[in-house]
Amino acid sequence: MRNIYLKSGLGDETYGPPFIFEEDKMPTLNSANQEAQEGIFSSIDDLLAKTLIEPQSIDIVIVTCGSFSPSPSLSSLIVNHYKLRSDVKTYNLSGMGCSSGVISIDFAARVLRGSREVQNALVVITESITLNWYNGDNRSMLVTNCIFRVGCAAALISNNPNLFQDAKMELVHSLRTHHGEDDSAYKAAFQEEDDKGITGVSLTKDLIRVAGMNLRQHIKILAPHVLPMTQLANYAYSMIMTILSQGKSKPVVPDFTKAFDHICIHTGGKAVIDQVGRVLNLSDQVTEPAKMCLNRFGNTSSSLVFYELAYFEAKGRVKKGDKMWMIAFGTGFKVGSLVWKWIQDSKQDSGNPWNDCIDNYPLKVW
Predict the structure, then answer these.
(1) 98 in catalytic set
(2) Domain 1-166 shares a fold with domain 169-343
(3) Which pTM value belongs to this model?
(4) Is 92 annotated in the active site?
C-alpha cells in the first residue's frame, strides 16, 4: 500500500477518519457517525455564520454521501441538530460517487427553478471513509485507502432575488450525463467482495480510459452551450471533415479556456488529472489547482471541486464576471458539469481550508 501511496500525488497533510488514530483501529458505526457529524456540523455552522441565514429559513436540505447511509438519515440528523421547520423537504443521495457534489447542486437548482414556494436550499456534500476502509490485500481495492480522504462542504443555493448581491456566484448552466449502458463504464469503479470475502471498492485499470472516453462524450453536449462562436465554428468544421474523410481526419478539441476563466477539474487521482489535461489540451497552469488540491487534501470524493474553488479564492484569482467550470466523474459512470458566473470578487474568508498553507502552494515539484 505504501508503494501505491508514494505514487498517488498526495502530500503528508491530508485528513483521515478518526478510527485510524485509535489504538485498536477498528472501524465502527460510532466512528463513522463521528466522522460524518464533525464534517457536516462544522461546514453548516460556518456557512450559516457567513450568510447570516437563519436555520428556520431553509426550505430544502439535500445531503449527498456516497457510501454511508445510516438510519435515521444524515438529512434527518441535520433537521434534528438545527431544529429545522417541520415542512422542510429533505433528500439523501447515495451511491453516486465523486460526481454527486456537482449533481446535488444541479438537483437543488432544478427544484428551485420549478417552484416559487421554496427559496433556500441547503446542500451538504460529504463522504464517510470509516466503514469503507478496505482491510484486504487486493491491489485494485487498496487504492481507495491510499487516495480517499476526509472532507466536507456546504452550500446555500437560493432563488431569492434579494440575496443576489450577497451571493458569490450565479449558476448559469449545468449538465449531467450517464454512461452506465456500457459495461466497462458501469464496472470501472465497483463495490464488491475480494476472493476472501472482504468488501471494498475496486478501481479497475480501465478507469482512466473510461474517464477519457466519457469526458469526450460529455463535452460534445456541453460545448454548444458554453463555447464562443469562433471555437464552435472550428469544432463544427473539424467534425464535418472527420465525417467526409471517413475518420482519417480527427476532430479538434475545443479550447475551453476561451469559455472559462477558471476550471475546477475532478481531483480523482494523479492519473485522472493527467487524463483530463490530455483530453482537453490543458496547460499545467490550468491543472495546477487540481494537482495542489490532491496534494493537500487528497481525494475528498464529492466535495473535491469545492476545495479547488477554495484554492482559487485563497489565491485571490477570481474576479467579478469571471466564469468557472466545475467538472467531476462518478461511479456508474457519470460526468457532471457546473458553470458559474462570479457576482463579486473573491474575498479573504476566515473559513477557507487553505488559510493555514496557501503560501506554500503551488509546489515546485508534484
Answers:
(1) yes
(2) yes
(3) 0.92
(4) no
